[in-house]
C-alpha cells in the first residue's frame, strides 16, 4: 500500500488552522522530518519540523505545498512562492474566500490546485474538511489529498465552487458559533444563579454529550430534541423561546449568510 503522506509537505503559514492540521497529521504518523513550515516569526511549529523565515530557493522533489496564511497575506508571498512551484507540485489552499481562479492566476506554474476548508476540531480528528478542485486538477491528486485529510475527520467533496463560501460559513466558521453557544448556555446559568465554574462544567458536558448522542443516534436532531421535551414539561417551554419566529433558526440563517457574504467580499478585495 502506498503512503497516505506526501514525500514532503511545505506549509506556507502555520498558525491556528494549519497548526491544528499539522498536529493531527503528526499524531497520525506523518514524519515531522518530512515537513517544512514557512512563518515570518520563526516560531517552532512542532517537534522535529523545520521552520524557515524566508522562501526557500527550491523545494524537495515530491513536495506538496499548502497555503495556511491569511488571504490578505497571499499577495505578499505569491511573487516568491510562484517560481518554486512546478507542474508536479500540488498546491493546496485553506484560504477562505480565495478562489481556484485567483490561485491559478497567482501560481500559473501549478497544475493541481485544491481548495480545502478545514475547521479547528481537525486537531482531534473530529473536524470537517470540505474539498474542491477544478477539472484541470488530476483526479489522482485529488484522491491523494482526500486520503491525507481522512485522519482529520469528515472529508466532504464540494461539486460547485460557488457553494464554497456557504460551506465555509457553516463548517469552517461553525466551531466558533458552537463555542459561543457553550458560553451563552453557561452565562445564562450564571445570570440566573448558578455558581460560575459549575455552570461552565454543566454547559460543556451537556453540549459534548448531546453532540456525541446526535452523531451516534439513528434519529435526526429534531427528533432527539422532541425526545427531551416531555409534553407540558420544562424543555418545551424553553424551546418555545428558541422556536419563535425570530428565534434560533432565523438567527443562524442570518449568521451563516453574513459569514458567506464576507467570503465573496474577501475575494473581491484581491
Ligand atoms: N482559524 C480557523 O478556524 C480557520 C482558518 N482558515 C483559513 O486559514 C488561514 C489561516 O488562518 P489562521 O490560522 O486563523 O491565521 P493565523 O493568524 O493563526 O495564522 C497565519 C499564519 O500565516 C503566517 N504568515 C503571516 N504572514 C506570512 C507571510 N508573508 N508568509 C508566510 N506566512 C505568513 C503567520 O506566521 P507566524 O506564525 O510567524 O505569525 C501564521 O503562521 C486563513 O486563510 C483562513 O481563512 C480556514 C478554516 C478555519
Ligand atoms: O474567519 C475566517 O475567515 C476563517 C474562515 C473559516 C474560519 N475562519
From TrEMBL:
InterPro entries: 6-PGluconate_DH-like_C_sf, NAD(P)-bd_dom_sf, P5CR_dimer, Pyrroline-COOH_reductase. Keywords: Amino-acid biosynthesis, Cytoplasm, NADP, Oxidoreductase, Proline biosynthesis. It catalyses: L-proline + NADP(+) = (S)-1-pyrroline-5-carboxylate + NADPH + 2 H(+); L-proline + NAD(+) = (S)-1-pyrroline-5-carboxylate + NADH + 2 H(+). One of its GO terms (cellular component) is cytoplasm. Pathway: Amino-acid biosynthesis; L-proline biosynthesis; L-proline from L-glutamate 5-semialdehyde: step 1/1. Gene3D superfamilies: NAD(P)-binding Rossmann-like Domain, ProC C-terminal domain-like. It is an enzyme of class 1 (oxidoreductase). GO terms for molecular function: pyrroline-5-carboxylate reductase activity. Residues 161-266 form the Pyrroline-5-carboxylate reductase dimerisation domain. The keyword NADP applies. It is found in: Cytoplasm. Its EC number is 1.5.1.2. It comes from the Bacteria. GO terms for biological process: L-proline biosynthetic process. Belongs to the pyrroline-5-carboxylate reductase family. PANTHER family: PYRROLINE-5-CARBOXYLATE REDUCTASE, PYRROLINE-5-CARBOXYLATE REDUCTASE 3. Catalyzes the reduction of 1-pyrroline-5-carboxylate (PCA) to L-proline. NCBIfam families: proC. This is Pyrroline-5-carboxylate reductase. It comes from Sphingobium algorifonticola.
Amino acid at each position: 500500500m502506498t503512503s497516505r503522506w506526501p514525500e514532503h509537505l511545505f506549509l506556507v503559514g502555520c498558525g491556528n488552522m494549519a497548526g491544528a492540521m499539522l498536529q493531527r497529521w503528526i499524531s497520525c504518523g506523518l514524519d515531522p522530518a518530512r515537513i517544512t513550515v514557512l512563518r515570518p516569526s520563526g516560531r517552532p511549529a512542532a517537534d522535529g519540523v523545520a521552520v524557515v523565515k524566508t522562501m526557500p530557493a527550491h523545494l524537495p522533489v515530491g513536495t506538496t505545498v499548502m497555503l495556511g496564511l491569511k488571504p490578505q497575506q497571499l499577495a505578499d508571498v505569491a511573487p516568491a512562492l510562484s517560481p518554486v512551484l512546478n507542474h508536479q507540485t500540488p498546491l493546496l489552499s485553506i484560504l477562505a474566500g480565495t478562489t481556484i481562479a485567483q490561485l491559478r492566476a497567482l501560481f500559473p506554474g501549478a497544475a493541481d490546485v485544491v481548495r480545502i476548508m478545514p475547521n479547528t476540531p481537525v486537531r482531534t480528528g473530529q473536524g470537517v474538511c470540505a474539498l474542491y478542485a477544478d477539472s484541470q486538477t488530476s483526479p489522482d491528486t485529488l484522491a491523494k489529498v482526500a486520503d491525507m485529510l481522512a485522519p482529520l475527520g469528515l472529508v466532504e467533496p464540494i461539486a460547485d465552487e460557488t457553494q464554497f463560501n456557504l460551506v465555509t460559513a457553516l463548517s469552517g466558521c461553525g466551531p466558533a458559533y458552537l463555542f459561543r453557544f457553550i458560553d451563552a448556555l453557561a452565562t445564562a446559568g450564571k445570570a440566573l444563579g448558578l455558581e460560575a465554574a459549575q455552570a461552565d462544567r454543566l454547559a460543556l458536558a451537556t453540549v459534548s454529550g448531546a453532540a456525541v448522542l446526535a452523531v451516534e443516534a439513528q434519529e435526526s436532531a429534531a427528533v432527539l430534541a422532541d425526545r427531551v421535551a416531555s409534553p407540558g414539561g420544562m424543555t418545551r417551554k424553553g424551546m418555545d423561546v428558541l422556536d419563535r419566529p425570530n428565534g434560533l433558526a432565523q438567527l443562524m440563517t442570518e449568521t451563516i449568510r453574513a459569514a458567506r457574504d464576507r467570503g465573496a467580499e474577501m475575494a473581491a478585495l484581491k
